[in-house]
Amino acid sequence: MQFVKTLAILLACVCSILNAAPQQKWVRDIEETPGLFEGDIILPPSIENGLIDEVYRWPNATVVYELDPTFMVDELAKIYAGWAEITNTTCIKFRPKGPSDTNYVMVRRGAEGTGCSSSVGMRGGQQGMNLEAPSCTNRHGTIIHEMLHAIGFYHEQSRPDRDDYLTVVWDKIEPGKEHNFNKYPEDTVTTLGAPYDYGSVLHYSARGFSIDGNDTLVPKIPGVTIGQRLQISQLDAGKVRLMYNCPDEW
């Protein structure tokens, strides 16, 4: 009987400790920066036909850039590795800004809390890209993600046909962030004839802008994972090649 009483007391203590344990806080993704369109897009004065209009494409498929001199050596290595993956799978090239270049991406080493962000397409003059260190620079797929914005792509789930592939759980989205789940009309973006890509490095995660950590995007194909940040997908690379009319060999 004494053993039973002792066991009951121990169980009560354990339950008390478990109930008192703090709940794990929902941590927002680094690409969901407050105040930026869709969390990581720097808008021009107005949203124009960035993907369809060729004026927003980089001439000769070459992105001109300038790197913040405060980047650490290891951070630069990670940035170059991300860009190399784009170069190895498409005809896009990168070169540092020269004295006569007026259109270029200024890649800034962002302070803590500034997030990861980029303009979409070549906007003319100096345009921004922010990579918070080390949160953004430590994530290979995020480096690719932001550069694909600069090359000319919006998020995958912004496609006009998005609702054929995803269910948006509107009541789980943080109030005031619903606009980040808008679709673009067909006169603004083009799918380039490519199928919907759940595996795109430009796709939101299932819990993007979640109010409580529950899913805000649910794929209509059960078991599909969205929001990977490991590598450029085959369809991502294929769409870049289509947009820039890459030759079969580059």
UniProtKB/TrEMBL annotation:
<feature type="binding site">
    <location>
        <position position="155"/>
    </location>
    <ligand>
        <name>Zn(2+)</name>
    </ligand>
</feature>
<dbReference type="InterPro" id="IPR001506">
    <property type="entry name" value="Peptidase_M12A"/>
</dbReference>
<feature type="binding site">
    <location>
        <position position="149"/>
    </location>
    <ligand>
        <name>Zn(2+)</name>
    </ligand>
</feature>
<dbReference type="InterPro" id="IPR006026">
    <property type="entry name" value="Peptidase_Metallo"/>
</dbReference>
<keyword id="KW-0325">Glycoprotein</keyword>
<protein>
    <recommendedName>
        <fullName>Metalloendopeptidase</fullName>
        <ecNumber>3.4.24.-</ecNumber>
    </recommendedName>
</protein>
<feature type="binding site">
    <location>
        <position position="145"/>
    </location>
    <ligand>
        <name>Zn(2+)</name>
    </ligand>
</feature>
<dbReference type="Pfam" id="PF01400">
    <property type="entry name" value="Astacin"/>
</dbReference>
<keyword id="KW-0862">Zinc</keyword>
<keyword id="KW-0865">Zymogen</keyword>
<feature type="disulfide bond">
    <location>
        <begin position="91"/>
        <end position="246"/>
    </location>
</feature>
<feature type="signal peptide">
    <location>
        <begin position="1"/>
        <end position="20"/>
    </location>
</feature>
<keyword id="KW-1015">Disulfide bond</keyword>
<dbReference type="GO" id="GO:0008270">
    <property type="term" value="F:zinc ion binding"/>
</dbReference>
<keyword id="KW-0479">Metal-binding</keyword>
<keyword id="KW-0645">Protease</keyword>
<dbReference type="GO" id="GO:0006508">
    <property type="term" value="P:proteolysis"/>
</dbReference>
<feature type="domain" description="Peptidase M12A">
    <location>
        <begin position="49"/>
        <end position="247"/>
    </location>
</feature>
<dbReference type="InterPro" id="IPR024079">
    <property type="entry name" value="MetalloPept_cat_dom_sf"/>
</dbReference>
<keyword id="KW-0378">Hydrolase</keyword>
<dbReference type="GO" id="GO:0004222">
    <property type="term" value="F:metalloendopeptidase activity"/>
</dbReference>
<keyword id="KW-0482">Metalloprotease</keyword>
<keyword id="KW-0732">Signal</keyword>
<feature type="active site">
    <location>
        <position position="146"/>
    </location>
</feature>
<dbReference type="InterPro" id="IPR034035">
    <property type="entry name" value="Astacin-like_dom"/>
</dbReference>
